[in-house]
Design goal:
The chain is α+β, with helices and mostly antiparallel strands and 485 residues long. It has 12 helices and 12 strands. The strands form 3 sheets. It has a 5-stranded mixed beta sheet with strand order 1-2-4-3-12. Strands 6, 7, 8, 9 and 10 form a 5-stranded antiparallel beta sheet that branches. A hairpin with a 2-residue loop joins strand 7 (169-178) and strand 8. Helix 10 (356-369) packs across helix 11. The longest helix has 36 residues, at 262-297. It is extended. The protein starts with a strand and ends in an 18-residue tail after the last strand.
Length: 485
């Protein structure tokens, strides 16, 4: 088995020096001859049937060595990672420090891999840590708002003979013109005044209009062949309706809920609002816990991993030149990576592993959020190689809940806060497990076992040999390929 030495370059990066003997590389050399035989065209020989001695004469042993090395980079990298017990989180690269002899395949091949790794840090004590959160006051207005929202679901629209105001439902006819020519129109459009989900400026234009009145305003068109252009919009109100809410009495409670009386319904709503206030406290406690532990742990982060994530994020948004936004993304990506490293360390310390039920509940919840059937969602995860990501996410959520359960949480008046329901993890909802996911976007922390190195694939996030020009094994051997991102 190849020998591996580890050199720590900085807190987040290591160099793995791997020594491979000629005998250990021999199986790859034999395979390389077959590969080269399929690639070359030599008169008198069919592809794949070119003898090794002819390849040596016409192509050169150096090409065979390079093919063998590139083919074996993955295997030797995986062995090196396993032997050294390093924990890669970034994209590995490879240099060939020493080649085999290009004439007789003797000597020792020396490969140096460099990769970003999980940094070492001391996990701060969190058992008994004190966290102070806001008071969970049940706002009477919040209870009334919830009741009114329920009443609105059972409300009826009634035509009124008065000017329209916010909250009314109006029926509209619209005509958009550019340069005096009609470019779009719509009739019988129903719109809730003040909702802001139609055209910019329409709320101001409609305010105080009555049925039968017409006005014009300028707005940017949101669709069609003139999307993005400014048009003059003529809008005519054909009717004004207000929502008439049912009376909040026992009859309404029986119609809208499982309760017999309005008092029971209000009590249930109050309990829901109270539970929401506790979850808000739980979210605040979670954020405080993570912030305090990250501060104490002083977790170093990989500049390469952060830069890769920031570039991907900004490129996806088309904002690579936005320096101000770049600074924001760097900050959030750094916090995200530190949070992941922290929760991974807690999971290891606590021996946290997700149960099948927890994984299933998380997947079912996430599938619903994406509007997909669970089986369809699982299939998409498998095809995208994202199952390990889901497992890691559920594990981190569970680790966070375990750590939070060991904290002492009080409100600003010193009253103990019971987060028992909040910190339950077995089978909890994907968002309820930790109030919300600790990271919306993950940096590129890729496990080597999930993505194999391959020197000749330019888009692969894997090690590729970079040959030093002073160490050519034979004149006929082409320069090895540079590591590609």
């Amino acid at each position: 088995m190849p020998k591996t030495k580890v050199e720590k370059l900085n807190p987040t990066r290591v160099k793995l020096l791997v020594e491979v003997t000629a005998d250990e590389l021999q199986p790859h050399i034999e395979k390389a001859y077959k590969t080269v035989a399929e690639q070359v065209n030599i008169p008198g020989f069919r592809k794949g049937k070119v003898p090794a001695r002819i390849i040596d004469q016409r192509v050169g042993k150096g090409v065979v060595i390079e093919q063998a090395v590139n083919d074996s980079l993955d295997l030797h990298y995986q062995i090196a990672v396993t032997e050294s017990e390093v924990r890669p989180i970034g994209r590995p690269t490879a240099d060939i420090d020493q080649w085999l002899d290009g004439e007789d395949f003797t000597g020792t091949l020396v490969i140096s891999y460099e990769v970003e790794v999980r940094p070492e840090f001391k996990l701060p004590k969190y058992d008994g840590i004190k966290l102070t959160v806001d008071e969970a006051e049940v706002d009477k207005q919040a209870v009334q708002d919830e009741l009114d929202a329920l009443r609105a679901r059972f409300g009826t629209l009634v035509t009124v003979e008065r000017p329209a105001k916010t909250g009314d439902f109006v029926e509209l006819d619209l005509v958009a013109r550019i340069g005096g020519a009609d470019v779009d129109q719509a009739t019988g459009v129903s719109y809730e005044l003040g909702s802001g989900n139609l055209l910019e400026g329409i709320d101001d234009a409609l305010e105080s209009l009555t049925a039968g009145e017409t006005t014009t305003f300028n707005s940017t068109l949101l669709g069609g062949e003139h999307e993005g252009e400014t048009a003059e919009v003529e809008v005519t109100v054909t009717s004004v309706k207000e929502r008439e809410l049912p009376k909040a009495d026992d009859e309404f409670a029986q119609m809208a809920s499982e309760f017999e009386t309005i008092a029971e319904l209000k009590k249930s709503i109050e309990e829901q609002v109270s539970r929401g206030a506790v979850y808000k406290q739980g979210g605040q406690a979670r954020d405080l816990l993570i912030e305090q532990l990250i501060k104490e742990a002083k977790i170093p982060v990989s500049e390469e991993v952060i830069n890769d994530e920031v570039h991907r994020h900004l490129e996806g948004e088309g904002r690579l030149e936005d320096d101000e936004h770049r600074a924001e993304v760097i900050e959030s990506s750094t916090k995200t990576l530190q949070t992941q490293l922290l929760l991974d360390a807690i999971a290891e310390a606590e021996g946290v592993e997700p149960t099948q039920n927890e994984l299933s509940q998380y997947i079912f919840s996430a599938a619903g959020q994406y509007g997909m059937e669970p089986a369809q969602f699982i299939q998409a995860l498998e095809q995208g190689g994202q199952i390990p990501v889901i497992i890691a996410e559920v594990t981190r959520n569970k680790a966070l809940a375990v750590a939070l359960s060991k904290a002492t949480v009080v409100d600003k008046k010193g009253k103990a806060v019971d987060l028992t329901e909040f910190t339950q993890v077995d089978g909890g909802d994907a968002e309820e497990v930790a109030a919300e996911k600790p990271a919306a976007k993950k940096p590129s922390a890729k496990k080597p076992a999930a993505k194999k190195p391959a020197a000749k694939k330019p888009a692969a996030e894997k090690p590729a040999a970079k040959k030093s020009e002073s160490k050519k094994p034979a004149a006929k051997k082409p320069a090895a390929k540079e590591a590609a991102e």
